[in-house]
Amino acid sequence: MGRVGKHYRGQLGTKYFAWQGQGGELSAQIERTKFERWTSSDTAVVDFGCGAGHLLELLPARRRLGVEPNESARLVAQERGLNVVASTSEVPERFADVVISNHALEHTLAPWDELCGLRRVLKPNGRLVLWLPLDDWRTQRHPLEDDNHHLYAWTPLLLRNLLDEAGFEVELVRVVTHAWPQFHEQLFRALPRRAFDALATAWAFTTRHRQLMAVASCPLATDESAGGQPVLVQREGLLGDPAP
User: Fold this and answer.
1) Fewest CB atoms within 10 A around its CB: which of 96, 156, 210, 211?
2) Are 84 and 67 in contact (CB under 8 A)?
3) All domains in the chain, ordered by first residue
4) How far, in Å, CA of 181 to CA of 170, rounded?
């Protein structure tokens, strides 16, 4: 991540991580099914907004690298032996076969810039697997009591448009009716996975808390001047500015 809001720096960042990081290991167990089909022991994986790195640690991978601007979370991840940097700009170009991100892009000040940065670190034909909250105004009439700090809301069309403007080839954008139910920690420990997911689907439908899933790839083109060799597509960004 590049430019981040004040809630992820200094004392506010420490406070936010203390809240957000509660139950990190169990949360990773719940969320791993979102991403594990896209990774394998042969892939280099980048987790954008990795927190303390619990999810990144669980996924099969040949190489793992996290991006986390919150210093408190980043230090915890590093102390646990994970390679975690503060910004996508610190990730080598074409490092990753797969970039994952779980409910992080909505916290950034400039989502288009961040997506362009993620495209830079993907290998040709590498994939971005992105999960975001789908905020419903009926659940957001009043400020939440928790440390939410979302700066952007999404629809399937707007997310597809933004990914396209950032230079990705969009393969999939879909609404997923699944949200952690009340007492999710106790329920996850007590129930079989399929029963927990069925309950999470019912809870999401009842409370109007849904998610967006997107899968996009880093496109290739054939350069005739290079003897027909494939090259990364350089897409124009918003207002005709070159994408980073």
Assistant:
1) 156
2) yes
3) 6-240 (3.40.50.150)
4) 30
